[in-house]
Amino acid sequence: MTRSYAQAPIRTVAAANGIEYAYREVGEGGVPLVLLMHFRGNLDNWDPALVDSLAQGRRVIAFDNTGVGRSSGTTPGTIAQMALDAIAFTDALKLAQVDLLGFSLGSFVAQEIALIRPSLARRVVLASAAPQGAPGMHGWTSWVIDAVGAPEIDPARVLDVFYTRSPESRSAGEKAMGRMFTREELDVPTTWQTRQAQYDAVTAWGIPNISFLGRVTAIGASVFVANGDSDPMILPRYSHLLAGLIPQARLKIYPDSAHGFLFQHHAEFAADVEAFLTDPQ
Fold it and tell me: What does the record list as coiled-coil region(s) (predicted)?
């Protein structure tokens, strides 16, 4: 088994829904931890330092959902379908039970998986997360979507969203980006179709609807909600709201960090995730 995410080859598996999924995995043992990626991200956008820390003593699997990166098909425009597609991927790998780590858009998908197939999700980590229908979540502010949603991605503008203006945070972000893309085998960049479909899904998820907030109260799995204290994409107050709605949830907000808090604080976050996943409670 590959010990480093930076060296892990891209593999593929054919699912019953007709999609061929691309994935990387590292580590072995324990309940597999499946990673669900953010808006416009692919396999390369996971920080190897974080993944390697998570994989100490457990199998960690990152994958491109339908239509993303090297996976086949067309990216759907709803969170519900993304969740069904993710379940098809776990079925293809014959995973009867997993832990989930969903980041941003991936955290929305993780919530749906936990609701659609409760038996699959043992424990759930929601990074930069919000519940469906939360007031104020209908799309991102113009400067945020301009920074991350333009046809051509500008790394400097992405840094503005994922990290704070402090020298410490910005330096951590530059180092994380360097780690992500220093490998021989890179994934295929996400397409404009993926960008449009994913933003449609994000916007629909954020249409205000107070009645939808009750959905997450049905999540029976233990949940760890985490965010940066200065996240401009998913404001910390939504993480507080989500953690308050889920019956078995705990919350942590990381200091001097934004949307990429889990990469900036990768060692601390990985230790917190490990403690959560192994907690006998």
Answer: none
